[in-house]
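To close the section, here is one more complete example, presented without commentary so you can practise reading it yourself. The ligand is iron/sulfur cluster.
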Amino acid sequence: MVSAESVRGVRASLGTLARAGVLRHVKVMEHPRTAYLLIPGRCSGGCLFCPHWLDDRRLSRVSWPEVNVGEILGAQWRFKRVCIQSVLRRMFWKDLVEIASLFEIPISIATNPVGERELWELKRVSQILGIGLDAMSRRVFERVRKPGSFYQYLRFLDKSLRVYGKGKVYVHLIAGLGESPEEALKTISHVYESGGEVALFAFTPVPGTPLQSESRPPLSYYRFLQVVTHFLRNGIPLREVRSLDPDDYKEAFLTSGCPDCNRPFYNESPSGDCYNFPSLELLERNWDRVRRELEGAARYFRLLP
Ligand code: SF4
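Output:
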Protein backbone atom coordinates (compact mmCIF):
# COMPACT_ATOMS: atom_id res chain seq x y z
CA MET A 1 0.00 0.00 0.00
CA VAL A 2 1.24 3.53 -0.81
CA SER A 3 1.42 5.96 2.10
CA ALA A 4 -0.84 9.03 2.17
CA GLU A 5 2.24 11.26 2.36
CA SER A 6 3.41 10.08 -1.05
CA VAL A 7 0.40 11.67 -2.75
CA ARG A 8 0.69 15.42 -3.23
CA GLY A 9 -2.97 16.20 -3.19
CA VAL A 10 -6.35 15.46 -4.61
CA ARG A 11 -9.39 17.50 -5.52
CA ALA A 12 -12.65 16.73 -3.74
CA SER A 13 -16.15 18.04 -4.36
CA LEU A 14 -17.44 20.62 -1.89
CA GLY A 15 -20.12 18.22 -0.66
CA THR A 16 -17.48 15.56 -0.05
CA LEU A 17 -15.35 17.98 1.96
CA ALA A 18 -18.37 19.04 4.02
CA ARG A 19 -19.29 15.41 4.75
CA ALA A 20 -15.67 14.59 5.61
CA GLY A 21 -15.63 17.46 8.11
CA VAL A 22 -12.82 19.25 6.25
CA LEU A 23 -14.95 22.31 5.40
CA ARG A 24 -17.07 22.79 8.49
CA HIS A 25 -18.60 26.09 7.38
CA VAL A 26 -20.17 24.58 4.22
CA LYS A 27 -23.82 23.66 4.81
CA VAL A 28 -25.26 21.02 2.49
CA MET A 29 -28.89 20.09 1.98
CA GLU A 30 -28.11 16.47 1.06
CA HIS A 31 -24.95 14.63 1.98
CA PRO A 32 -23.09 12.59 -0.63
CA ARG A 33 -22.99 8.89 0.24
CA THR A 34 -19.92 8.57 -2.01
CA ALA A 35 -16.71 10.60 -1.63
CA TYR A 36 -16.05 12.23 -5.02
CA LEU A 37 -12.38 12.83 -5.76
CA LEU A 38 -10.66 14.19 -8.84
CA ILE A 39 -6.98 13.82 -9.69
CA PRO A 40 -5.22 17.20 -9.83
CA GLY A 41 -4.05 18.79 -13.09
CA ARG A 42 -5.66 20.47 -16.05
CA CYS A 43 -7.44 18.31 -18.59
CA SER A 44 -6.11 18.49 -22.13
CA GLY A 45 -9.47 17.38 -23.54
CA GLY A 46 -11.31 20.58 -24.45
CA CYS A 47 -14.89 19.20 -24.55
CA LEU A 48 -17.19 22.13 -25.30
CA PHE A 49 -19.56 21.51 -22.37
CA CYS A 50 -16.89 21.10 -19.69
CA PRO A 51 -15.30 23.90 -17.63
CA HIS A 52 -12.40 21.78 -16.39
CA TRP A 53 -9.92 22.54 -19.17
CA LEU A 54 -10.53 26.27 -18.53
CA ASP A 55 -10.33 26.08 -14.74
CA ASP A 56 -9.22 22.86 -13.06
CA ARG A 57 -11.14 23.70 -9.86
CA ARG A 58 -14.44 23.14 -11.67
CA LEU A 59 -16.33 20.15 -13.03
CA SER A 60 -19.99 20.47 -14.04
CA ARG A 61 -21.46 23.11 -11.66
CA VAL A 62 -19.40 21.90 -8.71
CA SER A 63 -16.20 23.34 -7.16
CA TRP A 64 -13.38 20.93 -6.33
CA PRO A 65 -10.88 22.42 -3.86
CA GLU A 66 -7.52 20.68 -3.59
CA VAL A 67 -6.71 19.00 -0.27
CA ASN A 68 -4.26 16.46 1.04
CA VAL A 69 -5.72 13.03 0.42
CA GLY A 70 -5.00 12.18 4.07
CA GLU A 71 -7.88 14.48 5.07
CA ILE A 72 -10.34 12.31 3.14
CA LEU A 73 -8.69 9.06 4.16
CA GLY A 74 -9.20 9.89 7.83
CA ALA A 75 -12.92 10.34 7.20
CA GLN A 76 -13.44 7.55 4.68
CA TRP A 77 -15.77 5.65 7.03
CA ARG A 78 -18.32 8.44 6.70
CA PHE A 79 -18.84 7.30 3.10
CA LYS A 80 -20.06 4.07 1.54
CA ARG A 81 -17.85 4.39 -1.55
CA VAL A 82 -15.12 6.53 -3.04
CA CYS A 83 -15.20 7.58 -6.69
CA ILE A 84 -11.92 8.78 -8.18
CA GLN A 85 -12.33 10.68 -11.43
CA SER A 86 -9.64 11.25 -14.01
CA VAL A 87 -8.70 14.10 -16.28
CA LEU A 88 -7.02 13.61 -19.62
CA ARG A 89 -3.34 14.23 -19.13
CA ARG A 90 -0.07 12.32 -19.31
CA MET A 91 0.01 9.14 -17.17
CA PHE A 92 -3.27 10.04 -15.47
CA TRP A 93 -3.96 6.36 -14.79
CA LYS A 94 -0.98 6.19 -12.42
CA ASP A 95 -2.54 8.83 -10.15
CA LEU A 96 -5.82 6.92 -10.22
CA VAL A 97 -4.06 3.75 -9.10
CA GLU A 98 -2.01 5.54 -6.47
CA ILE A 99 -4.99 7.29 -4.88
CA ALA A 100 -7.33 4.28 -5.12
CA SER A 101 -4.83 1.99 -3.42
CA LEU A 102 -5.04 4.13 -0.26
CA PHE A 103 -8.73 3.47 0.45
CA GLU A 104 -10.38 0.56 2.22
CA ILE A 105 -14.03 1.26 1.32
CA PRO A 106 -15.57 0.19 -2.07
CA ILE A 107 -13.89 2.00 -4.95
CA SER A 108 -15.10 3.23 -8.33
CA ILE A 109 -12.75 4.77 -10.86
CA ALA A 110 -14.12 7.01 -13.60
CA THR A 111 -11.79 7.18 -16.58
CA ASN A 112 -11.23 7.82 -20.24
CA PRO A 113 -10.10 4.89 -22.39
CA VAL A 114 -6.74 3.38 -21.42
CA GLY A 115 -4.75 0.43 -22.80
CA GLU A 116 -5.15 -3.19 -21.69
CA ARG A 117 -2.21 -3.15 -19.26
CA GLU A 118 -3.42 0.06 -17.58
CA LEU A 119 -6.96 -1.33 -17.37
CA TRP A 120 -5.73 -4.35 -15.40
CA GLU A 121 -3.83 -1.97 -13.11
CA LEU A 122 -7.06 -0.05 -12.46
CA LYS A 123 -8.91 -3.31 -11.86
CA ARG A 124 -6.34 -4.29 -9.24
CA VAL A 125 -7.37 -1.32 -7.04
CA SER A 126 -11.10 -0.87 -7.81
CA GLN A 127 -14.28 -2.92 -8.14
CA ILE A 128 -16.24 -0.71 -10.54
CA LEU A 129 -15.20 1.31 -13.58
CA GLY A 130 -16.97 4.42 -14.88
CA ILE A 131 -16.44 5.46 -18.49
CA GLY A 132 -16.98 9.12 -19.46
CA LEU A 133 -18.55 8.59 -22.88
CA ASP A 134 -20.91 11.55 -22.26
CA ALA A 135 -22.24 11.80 -25.84
CA MET A 136 -25.16 9.62 -26.91
CA SER A 137 -24.16 9.35 -30.59
CA ARG A 138 -21.17 9.70 -32.86
CA ARG A 139 -22.66 12.93 -34.23
CA VAL A 140 -22.92 14.47 -30.75
CA PHE A 141 -19.49 13.15 -29.75
CA GLU A 142 -17.96 15.08 -32.66
CA ARG A 143 -20.15 18.13 -32.08
CA VAL A 144 -18.92 18.59 -28.50
CA ARG A 145 -15.33 17.86 -29.60
CA LYS A 146 -14.53 15.02 -27.28
CA PRO A 147 -11.05 13.66 -27.92
CA GLY A 148 -10.92 10.18 -29.46
CA SER A 149 -13.89 8.64 -31.18
CA PHE A 150 -17.34 7.37 -30.21
CA TYR A 151 -16.46 3.87 -31.41
CA GLN A 152 -13.17 3.88 -29.51
CA TYR A 153 -15.24 4.39 -26.33
CA LEU A 154 -17.65 1.60 -27.29
CA ARG A 155 -14.70 -0.74 -27.87
CA PHE A 156 -13.32 0.34 -24.49
CA LEU A 157 -16.68 -0.55 -22.92
CA ASP A 158 -16.37 -4.11 -24.29
CA LYS A 159 -12.78 -4.40 -23.15
CA SER A 160 -13.65 -3.06 -19.67
CA LEU A 161 -16.51 -5.54 -19.33
CA ARG A 162 -14.10 -8.38 -20.04
CA VAL A 163 -11.80 -7.10 -17.29
CA TYR A 164 -14.32 -5.94 -14.64
CA GLY A 165 -17.23 -8.26 -15.49
CA LYS A 166 -20.85 -7.63 -16.43
CA GLY A 167 -22.66 -5.04 -14.34
CA LYS A 168 -19.39 -3.56 -13.10
CA VAL A 169 -18.90 -0.92 -15.78
CA TYR A 170 -20.97 2.29 -15.69
CA VAL A 171 -21.12 4.44 -18.80
CA HIS A 172 -21.64 8.12 -18.03
CA LEU A 173 -24.10 9.65 -20.50
CA ILE A 174 -25.17 13.31 -20.60
CA ALA A 175 -28.71 13.99 -21.79
CA GLY A 176 -29.26 17.24 -23.69
CA LEU A 177 -26.04 17.64 -25.68
CA GLY A 178 -28.02 17.68 -28.93
CA GLU A 179 -28.91 14.00 -29.34
CA SER A 180 -32.29 12.90 -30.65
CA PRO A 181 -34.47 10.79 -28.32
CA GLU A 182 -33.96 7.90 -30.77
CA GLU A 183 -30.18 8.21 -30.48
CA ALA A 184 -30.44 8.26 -26.70
CA LEU A 185 -32.65 5.19 -26.68
CA LYS A 186 -30.26 3.35 -28.99
CA THR A 187 -27.14 4.10 -26.94
CA ILE A 188 -28.69 3.36 -23.55
CA SER A 189 -30.05 0.06 -24.96
CA HIS A 190 -26.64 -0.77 -26.44
CA VAL A 191 -24.92 -0.31 -23.08
CA TYR A 192 -27.36 -2.68 -21.36
CA GLU A 193 -27.26 -5.24 -24.20
CA SER A 194 -23.45 -5.27 -23.84
CA GLY A 195 -23.67 -5.99 -20.10
CA GLY A 196 -22.87 -2.47 -18.91
CA GLU A 197 -24.80 0.00 -16.77
CA VAL A 198 -25.72 3.64 -17.35
CA ALA A 199 -25.14 6.63 -15.08
CA LEU A 200 -27.33 9.39 -16.43
CA PHE A 201 -26.39 13.06 -16.21
CA ALA A 202 -28.25 16.16 -17.42
CA PHE A 203 -26.42 18.74 -19.51
CA THR A 204 -25.61 21.78 -17.36
CA PRO A 205 -24.61 24.97 -19.19
CA VAL A 206 -21.61 26.25 -17.22
CA PRO A 207 -20.65 29.95 -17.53
CA GLY A 208 -17.42 30.44 -19.47
CA THR A 209 -17.78 27.28 -21.57
CA PRO A 210 -18.59 27.39 -25.31
CA LEU A 211 -22.01 25.82 -24.59
CA GLN A 212 -22.87 28.28 -21.81
CA SER A 213 -25.89 29.69 -23.68
CA GLU A 214 -27.48 26.36 -24.57
CA SER A 215 -30.59 25.12 -22.78
CA ARG A 216 -30.82 22.33 -20.28
CA PRO A 217 -32.78 19.28 -21.47
CA PRO A 218 -36.55 19.38 -20.90
CA LEU A 219 -37.40 17.64 -17.64
CA SER A 220 -40.04 15.51 -19.38
CA TYR A 221 -37.36 14.17 -21.76
CA TYR A 222 -35.04 13.46 -18.84
CA ARG A 223 -37.80 11.63 -16.95
CA PHE A 224 -38.34 9.46 -20.04
CA LEU A 225 -34.63 8.53 -20.14
CA GLN A 226 -34.64 7.80 -16.41
CA VAL A 227 -37.56 5.42 -16.87
CA VAL A 228 -35.90 3.67 -19.83
CA THR A 229 -32.64 3.30 -17.89
CA HIS A 230 -34.46 1.96 -14.83
CA PHE A 231 -36.42 -0.63 -16.84
CA LEU A 232 -33.34 -1.84 -18.73
CA ARG A 233 -31.28 -1.98 -15.53
CA ASN A 234 -33.91 -4.18 -13.91
CA GLY A 235 -34.55 -6.34 -16.98
CA ILE A 236 -38.17 -5.16 -17.32
CA PRO A 237 -39.41 -5.08 -20.96
CA LEU A 238 -39.91 -1.47 -22.05
CA ARG A 239 -43.45 -2.22 -23.30
CA GLU A 240 -44.48 -2.72 -19.67
CA VAL A 241 -44.10 1.02 -19.02
CA ARG A 242 -47.65 1.40 -20.31
CA SER A 243 -49.17 -1.04 -17.84
CA LEU A 244 -47.38 0.27 -14.75
CA ASP A 245 -48.03 3.34 -12.65
CA PRO A 246 -45.08 5.66 -11.86
CA ASP A 247 -45.68 4.87 -8.17
CA ASP A 248 -44.45 1.34 -9.04
CA TYR A 249 -41.03 2.58 -10.20
CA LYS A 250 -40.26 5.66 -8.13
CA GLU A 251 -36.57 4.67 -7.79
CA ALA A 252 -36.18 5.45 -11.50
CA PHE A 253 -35.85 9.13 -10.57
CA LEU A 254 -33.09 8.70 -8.02
CA THR A 255 -29.54 9.39 -9.17
CA SER A 256 -28.37 6.48 -11.34
CA GLY A 257 -24.89 5.02 -11.05
CA CYS A 258 -22.74 2.78 -8.88
CA PRO A 259 -24.26 1.56 -5.60
CA ASP A 260 -24.47 4.53 -3.20
CA CYS A 261 -23.59 7.13 -5.83
CA ASN A 262 -26.08 9.95 -5.24
CA ARG A 263 -24.15 13.02 -6.59
CA PRO A 264 -26.29 15.62 -4.77
CA PHE A 265 -26.93 18.66 -6.97
CA TYR A 266 -24.18 17.82 -9.43
CA ASN A 267 -26.44 18.86 -12.31
CA GLU A 268 -28.78 21.28 -10.62
CA SER A 269 -28.97 24.02 -8.04
CA PRO A 270 -30.77 22.97 -4.82
CA SER A 271 -33.27 25.77 -5.46
CA GLY A 272 -34.07 24.85 -9.08
CA ASP A 273 -35.45 21.93 -11.11
CA CYS A 274 -34.15 18.60 -9.89
CA TYR A 275 -32.98 16.11 -12.53
CA ASN A 276 -31.43 13.43 -10.31
CA PHE A 277 -32.91 13.03 -6.84
CA PRO A 278 -30.14 12.22 -4.35
CA SER A 279 -32.54 10.71 -1.77
CA LEU A 280 -35.97 9.14 -1.57
CA GLU A 281 -37.02 11.80 0.94
CA LEU A 282 -36.38 14.62 -1.52
CA LEU A 283 -38.13 12.67 -4.27
CA GLU A 284 -41.19 12.10 -2.07
CA ARG A 285 -41.40 15.83 -1.35
CA ASN A 286 -41.42 16.53 -5.12
CA TRP A 287 -43.43 13.53 -6.26
CA ASP A 288 -46.49 15.45 -7.55
CA ARG A 289 -44.21 17.55 -9.70
CA VAL A 290 -42.41 14.50 -11.11
CA ARG A 291 -45.75 12.93 -12.01
CA ARG A 292 -46.71 16.07 -13.92
CA GLU A 293 -43.36 16.02 -15.76
CA LEU A 294 -44.05 12.42 -16.73
CA GLU A 295 -47.44 13.39 -18.14
CA GLY A 296 -45.60 15.85 -20.37
CA ALA A 297 -43.35 13.02 -21.61
CA ALA A 298 -46.09 11.12 -23.50
CA ARG A 299 -44.57 11.91 -26.91
CA TYR A 300 -41.26 10.33 -25.88
CA PHE A 301 -42.93 7.21 -24.51
CA ARG A 302 -44.57 6.70 -27.91
CA LEU A 303 -41.08 5.83 -29.21
CA LEU A 304 -41.04 2.66 -27.13
CA PRO A 305 -41.91 -0.70 -28.71
S1 SF4 B 1 -21.65 6.35 -11.31
FE1 SF4 B 1 -21.03 7.70 -9.62
S2 SF4 B 1 -19.60 6.50 -8.33
FE2 SF4 B 1 -19.87 5.42 -10.31
S3 SF4 B 1 -18.14 6.10 -11.54
FE3 SF4 B 1 -19.87 7.45 -12.04
S4 SF4 B 1 -19.74 9.23 -10.64
FE4 SF4 B 1 -18.37 7.58 -9.85
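Once you have examined the C-alpha coordinates, check your reading against these statements. Confidence is low (pLDDT under 50) at residues 1-6. The beta strands are 10-12, 34-38, 58-59, 62-63, 66-67, 81-85, 107-111, 128-134, 169-175, 197-202.
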